[in-house]
UniProtKB/TrEMBL annotation, chain A:
Entry GO MF terms: arginine binding; identical protein binding
Protein name, per record: Cytosolic arginine sensor for mTORC1 subunit 1
InterPro entries reported in the protein's UniProt record: ACT-like_dom_sf, CASTOR1_ACT-like, CASTOR1_N, CASTOR_ACT_dom, CASTOR_fam, CASTOR_mTORC1
Source species: Chanos chanos
Segments forming domain CASTOR1 N-terminal: 26-86
From TrEMBL, chain B:
Family: Belongs to the WD repeat mio family.
InterPro entries linked to this entry: MIOS/Sea4 (IPR037593), MIOS_a-sol (IPR049092), WD40/YVTN_repeat-like_dom_sf (IPR015943), WD40_repeat_dom_sf (IPR036322), WD40_rpt (IPR001680), Zn_ribbon_mio (IPR031488)
Annotated protein name in UniProt: GATOR2 complex protein MIOS
Compartments, as annotated in UniProt: Lysosome membrane
Organism of this sequence: Chanos chanos
GO cellular component: lysosomal membrane
GO BP term (any one): positive regulation of TORC1 signaling
SUPFAM superfamilies: WD40 repeat-like
Superkingdom in the source lineage: Eukaryota
Main location (coarse class): membrane
Keyword match Thylakoid: no
Domain MIOS-like alpha-solenoid as annotated: residue spans: 396-625
Key word Chaperone present: no
Domain GATOR2 complex protein MIO zinc-ribbon like span(s) in chain numbering: 739-859
Amino acid sequence: MRSAPLSSTESSWRAEAMDLHILDHRLRVTSISKTGLENYTHPLIKLIFLRNRTRCKFFSLTETPENYTVVLDEEGFKELQPSEHLQVEGSTWLPLNVISNGNASSSSQAVGVTKIAKSVIAPLAEQHVSVFMLSTYQTDFILVRETDLSVVIHTLQEEFNIYREVKGESVPVQGQNAQNGLRKNGREASHATVHPVLIPENQFCVMSLDPDTLPAIATTLIDVLFYSNNTPKEDTSQAQDLECIKFFSFSLIDGYISLVMDTEAQRQFPADLLFTSSSGELWRMVRIGGQPLGFDECGIVAQISQPLADSDISAYYISTFSFDHALVPEEDIVSVTEMLKDQRKEAAR
Amino acid sequence: MMSGSKPDILWSPHHVDRYVICDSELSLYRIGAVGSSETKAGTLPLSEETAATLLAINSDTPYMKCVAWYPKHEPECLLAVGQANGRVVLTSLGQSHNSKCKELVGKEFVPKHARQCNTLAWNPVDSNWLAAGLDKHRADFSVLIWDINSKFSPEASVPAEKIRLSSGDTDSGLVVTKPLYELGQNDACLSLCWLPRDHQKLLLAGMHRNLAIFDLRNTSQKTFVNTKAIQGVTVDPHFQDRVASFFEGQVAIWDLRKFEKPVFTLTEQPKPLTKVAWCPTRMGLLATLTRDSNIIRLYDMQHTPTPIGDETEPTIIERSVQPCSESIISSFAWHPSAQNRMVVVSPNRVMTDFTVFERISLAWSSTTSLMWACGRHLYECSEEANAADRDIATKMRQRAQSRYGHDTVQVWRNHVLAGGDDPQLKSLWYTLHFMKQYTEDTEQRQQGNKQSLIYSGIKNIVKSSSGTTEIRRCWTGSDKQTDVPRYHSEERTLALQLCGWISRGPDIDVEPFLKSLEQEGEWERAAAVALFNLDIRRAIQILNKGASAEKGDLNLNVVAMALSGYTDEKNSLWREMCSSLRLQLKKPYLCVMFAFLTSEPGAYDGVLYESSVAVRDRVAFACMFLSDTQLPRYIDKLTSEMKEAGNLEGILLTGLTKDGVDLMESYVDRTGDVQTASFCMLKGSPGEVVKDPRVQCWIENYRNLLDAWRFWHKRAEFDIHRSKLDPSSKPLAQVFVSCNFCGKSISYSCSAMPHQGRGFSQYGVSGSPTKSKVTSCPGCRKPLPRCALCLMNMGTPVSSCPGKSDEKVDLTRDKKLAQFNNWFTWCHNCRHGGHAGHMLSWFRDHSECPVSACTCKCMQLDTTGNLVPSDSV
């Protein structure tokens, strides 16, 4: 009459330890061109608003001036009809999640990419594992290619207790001794390119929303996402002197909603429904890359996160199909700008 | 946890008649009796007896996600509301003039990063501590413990200009942003509860699919277990180490002392659960509700101590209740003090007051009493009937105690042992008595063939009848010739003897029988017997005597007068009146007397079919007055009548034959009296009758019954009695004690067997074998094992206690060795043992084996070891 215990279990007293969870999502990274958006409004609205109609558990949509980056699991990917407007990165990506089995009074207040810069980002960059970052209100996801997983596990098993989540249960991953994991991932170690950065003037906020109140902001959200009257400028005209760039990110992952928008967009939403920090912190953006970065280059995130970590500055980091975007606290933007300038100078030398 | 605007219920912790319904607003209700004076027009009926009155509504707190009621008396009706943005607001209902409350009401506790507040819990001891469980945020803690008395204190690390709270908040001192404790990073907290055993400990659920126990005195350490069941953690109020949590349709029950895995999980429900709650008034009762369901499932976790094996799963009894037949249940809440009572609420706020009816558990005792438990009441029902109406089991039990069936000399006395109030038993035991008596007589006369005939009953005796003579006799004391023919034969005489009319020996006088009837005061019967023996004067004399006796019936004189007027004149008035008026006589024997006198010779139906007259008297009458053709026909008819009715008087006719078993079968079917059946049929041994499977079945059932009553000595006595009568039932020896060295049995029966070829002399042992030490194996002369307690070799008598030394002197060695205390006994599990007496006294105070370093719990392995016989030797 009774079934087996619900979980594989392990109980122990543990001092501070970092856990790395390989989440039970298989993700695809796609891009919808600005002109082709109208072909995809139906599946996107379904994925955003009709949670009960889809089995998609991981959905992220980021609007940049260039295109719409959609990261979603295989269930969600089925909804997107292939067309000339849809670009799909060929690999399957797995999200990783770092969990500090937290000492409640953690010494560092910095969070996000900064926190994991030294422990995850840098080692993976050394092993030439390409990562795709996705920060949300709730947590930071590090996406790695499924094919790189053994290298990832091998690289990180020293530092982390690694668990793989299978059907809601966390299964500890035993470190393989395979030496081939140590090889440089089969890719040639290319010399790290220092990419140009762009620091637009917009102030951004990172927010969340009670999923139950999503219908209340539906029209605003649709308006902002699909009817932003910014006619896309020609890619080539993206000039350094551009003051503000269009950037809007919506994600619905495991039932949690996260929104990143600039203060201008925020004003369109009813104030009492969106959650943010009580201090109302605002963020500035650093866009990395002058040319579309592609997916194979390694060390881009490390390039930015490392100096931030050195200065203990919190950051959000959102990769898109073309460029990477770091969000840093408004009050730190001056020092970040200085830091990046120095970095560029050094590279130029 | 509330979802959307589905209403939830909370009972006031201190006002047993108040509860709050919360959906988009908070509504305080008072529950009362329907007819009470307090009920007004606006009351809502909750059940046939109760109704609710709306006292207050509070709609100050929108986006409510969870509510918790302040657990202390003062301030009463203080509620903490967790909102969708993570803020916790203190509010109140219907307490406008409470100053204590005023300071707190409206106070807000604001997390650094807004996200949904999933759960709230007040600390049961430090009641100003309020734990809030929030959704996850990448940079914030998901469990915040607030001190509701703390004043607004801007965080030192956050510059003042960064705090952009809505204007006015900071001034009023009503907003608190600095929690007392922060726990759990990176993940949502879906549910939490304080541990009642230690109020500094908090059980959180949701942290990375963990259940985790944090101790606030050292928050860096935690005990955790990985599980999916992270919703709705709740501690059993009656068993503070037991916690329930759930995930989708499955409930897991945890024991905090053994936190590695759930103790057990309940049967999975097809729909996700929405609420799981322990009953506060009933031990181990858990109620669960699934989404869109109209039933509440109840799990009764029986706490049954199991002596063997710690891994046995507890017994769970699952059942479901349907508080409101048609409507779906949105939520329910147990009443904090009224037994098994709850209020349920439907999605459209229809409320129902409902009491779960307690399961009734019932147990029969092996005797006749019955006990049942319902709620907190225990009812015992025992038999209180008068002696005649008692259940057969009670009767058998009493009879077993009075040694019923064991009087093998004065067999008839067994009916007295049985209580002496059952005419059928009386008849049966007299029949068996006479059968035994005449069997002994015939044995003395060495007429062996008659023995089996006697036990085969009158039916078979009269069939074998031959050489019947017909005599016409005069009425005694009168020269008047009767026209009544009387028949005689040896078999008929034997039948009369078995009927008890004439006693043993050659004398065929009924006078002794009449005397004994007179002594017992059976006047009518004695008169009738005298009359049937054609002695009217004696009959009249008996009746007179009866009338004059103490408590005598004066009517007997009238009967005597009527009798004295007897005339054989066919057309006389006497005859005419008697034959019609006799039917109005209440006493059957008086009735048959006149029937005899007024009937034609050979046509005695009025006597023979008068069922109130004892069978033995009717049979004796038939043997005297029915011809060889009439008699077997009558006996056959009567026999089948008796068999059908299961009337034990019929044993007289059937004897202990197959017919007798048939008769006994219908008797047992009617009464269930396997005791009488067993004892009676054993008398038929060594006939085939004992081997009848029905008889064996009765015997076995009777033995089981004795065992069930713990009448072990009685059962042993019965077995001895049985083996005496039926030697084939003697059980073979099943257990032998074999020597450790030679493997031969050391029991005396074996040692007494002749040794083939090898005498003891071969081993050079002088002296006779019988003198050989009983402490050694008679086969190989090696010593027997030692008693674990006295360390003497087995076979040595038990050393007696100093106080009992005189007893030792009295006993001969043989007798001592035969005593139970000297018996070998050993544990089948660990194989240690010793003298039975020593072992018994050891295990009176110990549970483990007396051999050091042996941890065998020998006595607990013996299920009957702790039982005490309820009969004494």
